[in-house]
Write a structure and sequence with these properties.
The protein has 374 residues and is an alpha/beta fold. The protein has a single domain, classed as 3-Layer(aba) Sandwich (Rossmann fold), CATH 3.40.50.1820. It is 34% helix and 20% strand. The strands form 2 sheets. A 9-stranded mixed β-sheet has the order 3-4-5-7-6-8-9-10-11, sandwiched between helices. Strands 1-2 form a two-stranded antiparallel ribbon. About 7% of the residues have low confidence.
Length: 374
């Protein structure tokens, strides 16, 4: 089932509209974007092989294609130095502010929360926390970890740490302490800085999205190297842009054992057909993606690991018909590998782009279930 939350029937259920090569089910109000899709090159359909061995090969091919699409990313440096800038005792846990050179011209700041009960002898599970976009360029990992309601109803960093998780969060390109530190310098902040960073990376044959994920993977490298962390029990979560970072990272790296992406599960053809490309910033778009597959191919690469998606049914940036299509196409993968119940996707009727208290409670329960011993 796509949701344990009761769903209202959407408008036009049962209607199928064919526009060129694009099929959109369950909607009667179709945007001009559907015509553009119909006139474009047909997106290859994602199909699931009949055997596990065949799926393993196909998964490798998809991952290789994703790597090429993200662009010519500089290799991540091995054993890169991380500088601890400060340590603060918060009672049950310690907060470390750190930074590292990403080897591509940028300094990446971040925060690490370490429960005092964690040690080299008693290793703890860890969470990579990915912050949102929301046009809040001056805010990054710090603001989401330590401030309630931005967007998580509680301050997620301290709560996760008190529950025994090591927590790491970095500032993505153009956000937090990195706002105004792109190719345009301090005179280009916010959206202007984001656009310039995207332009610069395109000139180098790579995407801004690829570089953002590269930094996230370096954060994962770091947290997995910490003596207090059990590298076999690391999860990832985030809201909005943070959710998209989370599911891409899950698809790309098996070190992440589970994840909870909240409020962003977007099938790109459906987003276009609904005329909602403006719901996402320039960072979001990977050149050439639809020449190969849509979002379901990325999501399928997460299998057989457990993942929980939670999305508002009225969230314009994640059309609900696309979410249903994704599930219909990827659940057979989890079923093929014998993990059908480990794919969970919940749609919340009447909810827009929000993070509800019950979503947070389900996030905690999910990580407790999949990252803690029982």
């Amino acid at each position: 089932m796509i949701s344990t939350t009761p769903l209202r029937p959407g408008p036009g259920i049962g209607i199928v509209l064919l526009v060129g090569t694009f099929t959109l089910m369950g909607q009667t109000n179709i945007h001009e974007g559907a015509r553009w899709l119909g006139a474009a090159r047909q997106v290859p359909e994602f199909t699931v092989p009949e055997t596990k061995a065949a799926w393993t090969r196909r998964r490798g091919e998809i991952r290789a294609t994703l790597g090429r699409l993200l662009g010519e990313l500089p290799p991540r440096p091995a054993g890169f130095p991380v500088k601890t800038l400060s340590r603060e005792d918060r009672g049950d846990f310690v907060v470390e502010k750190f930074q590292f050179d990403n080897g591509a011209g940028a300094t990446v700041p971040g925060y690490l929360l370490v429960p005092k009960a964690a040690s080299a002898r008693k290793k703890a599970p860890a969470i990579l926390y990915c912050h949102q976009h929301g046009g809040q360029y001056g805010k990054g990992g710090k603001e989401e970890l330590f401030i309630a309601g931005n967007p998580v109803p509680v301050a997620p960093g301290p709560e996760l740490a008190r529950r025994g998780f090591v927590v790491i969060a970095i500032d993505a390109y153009c956000f937090g302490e990195r706002d105004g530190k792109g190719p345009g310098g301090p005179n280009e902040k916010g959206g202007a800085g984001e656009m310039t960073a995207s332009k610069f990376n395109l000139w180098l044959g790579r995407s801004l999205w690829g570089m953002m994920l590269r930094d996230d993977l370096m954060a994962l490298d770091y947290v997995c190297s910490r003596p207090e962390v059990d590298a076999a029990r690391v999860g990832v979560t985030g809201f909005s842009m943070g959710a998209t970072r989370a599911w891409w990272l899950l698809a790309l790296d098996d070190r992440l054992k589970t994840g909870v992406p909240v409020a962003c599960l977007t099938r790109y053809q459906n987003l276009t057909a609904h005329g909602k490309l403006s719901a996402h910033g320039i960072y979001y778009f990977v050149p050439g993606m639809l020449r190969h597959f849509d979002t379901e191919a990325v999501i399928a690469c997460i299998a057989p690991r457990p993942v929980l998606f939670m999305t508002g049914e009225e969230d314009g940036g994640s059309p609900a018909d696309g979410i249903r299509t994704i599930e219909a196409r990827v659940r057979p993968v989890w079923r093929l590998v014998g993990k059908d119940s480990d794919y969970a996707s919940e749609l919340y009727p009447g909810l827009g782009h929000q993070y509800l208290p019950e979503m947070w409670e389900k996030t905690l329960a999910w990580f407790d279930k999949h990252l803690k011993p029982h």
